[in-house]
Amino acid sequence: MVKIRHIELGDFPLLLAPMEDVSDPPFRALCKKHGADMMYTEFISSEGLIRDAVKSVQKMDIFEYERPIGVQIFGSDEESMVQAAQIIERVKPDLIDINYGCPVKKVACKGAGAGLLQDIPKMVRLTKAVVNAVKVPVTVKTRLGWDDSTKNIVETAERLQDIGIEALTIHGRTRKQMYKGEADWSLIGAVKNNQRMRIPIFGNGDIDSPEKARLYRDTYGVDGIMIGRASIGYPWIFNEIKHFLASGEFINPPTFQERLDAIEEHLNFSIQWKGEKVGIAEMKRHYGNYFKGIPHFKTYKSALVMANELEEVKEIITEIKTMFLTEEVY
Questions:
Q1: Angstrom distance (rounded) from CA 280 to CA 328
Q2: Do the Cβ atoms of 300 and 319 come closer than 8 Å?
């Protein structure tokens, strides 16, 4: 049984990665429904949160059925990180996760996210301050290093454990790599197999199939896997991996009807949570992913992306049902 303090996650948990503009409550609801063992909010700016910025505050919305769930935070100022962590603790998440992995310029080049891979002593200080400021477990998500010359994750993991984090997720790329090339899981394995490590180690990067999940589990010995991009538009991946790990067999992929049902469920929750205008706008990034690989779908995808009114969206979905389900294209 993998545990983060009192949080029981099963024998080999599958975690939904915190993804900006993706891991909101509507998307998380689908991932939970289809087998995610633990999920995280989108990452929240510590500065935005202490300024009471609407977008940052809204990202703290969590629901009982989502548990266990972590709220993820990023920043570069110790005082702001502490204040933000204390604000987050009031919404009663199961844990607080600190992001030291985001590679985008607007975060990393301001000394937050993966930017702190250039200053490990400061990363350790910030983490210790947050750990000491809250009662809930604190975990960290990071990368192997800033670039190929600074892949110091084995030492960094020890230092973070020593100041009190209770789990560590490692993305198997450097900041310089962004999301290019293959993730290097050998160093993730080196952290897990370091005899000094006592906390759960989760691996992240390139897991996009049940076979790869089993191979990486068996090869590197990690306690669980975090799945990000492969789940976008395909929340079924969690149960597919679970079934394969348990039985060695594949389950059938979602039918066209099941994909449509997921889109409608996602859309309705998105509108309920953010209002019609924003809810419809934010769904546009998901349509293509839900129907990835479906032949002759490009025209409908374009129509959905162009639609700004709910009635228009519903009409297009009805047309899709009529066209694809009656012709049994899929």
A1: 28
A2: yes
Contact 72, 40 (CB under 8 A): yes
Q: Within a 10 A sphere around the Cβ of 172, how many other Cβ atoms? A: 24
CA 63/CA 57 separation, integer angstroms: 15
Closest CA to 217 of 228, 237, 201: 201
Rounded CA-CA distance 146/17 in Å is 20
Q: What element of type H or E holds 295?
A: none
Question: Could you say which architecture CATH assigns to the domain 3-247?
Answer: Alpha-Beta Barrel (3.20)
**Fold for the domain defined by 256-327:** 1.10.1200
DSSP 253: P
How far is the C-alpha of 256 from the C-alpha of 294, rounded, in Å? 9
- Per the omega criterion (within 30 degrees of 0), is the bond before 68 cis? yes
- Contact (Cβ atoms closer than 8 angstroms) between residue 142 and residue 100: yes
Look up 102 and say whether it is catalytic.
yes
Sequence-separated (6 or more) residues with CB below 8 Å from residue 51: none
Going residue by residue through the chain, which has 330 residues, state the pLDDT in tens, using 9 for 90 and above: 999 999 999 999 999 999 988 999 999 999 999 999 999 999 999 999 999 888 888 899 999 999 999 999 999 999 999 999 999 999 999 999 999 988 888 888 788 888 999 999 999 999 999 999 999 999 999 999 999 999 999 999 999 999 999 999 999 999 998 888 899 999 999 999 999 999 999 999 999 999 999 999 999 999 999 999 999 999 999 999 999 999 999 999 999 899 999 999 999 999 999 999 999 999 998 988 898 888 778 888 899 999 999 999 999 999 888 877 665 544
Tell which residue, 157, 230, 226, 192, has the closest CA to residue 13.
Answer: 226
Catalytic residue (one of 38, 87, 102, 280): 102
> Rounded to an integer, what is the distance from CA 236 to the centroid of its chain?
15
Structural domain boundaries in the chain: 3-247, 256-327
- Residue carrying structure tokens 């409608």: 264
Residue written as tokens 């975090």?
226
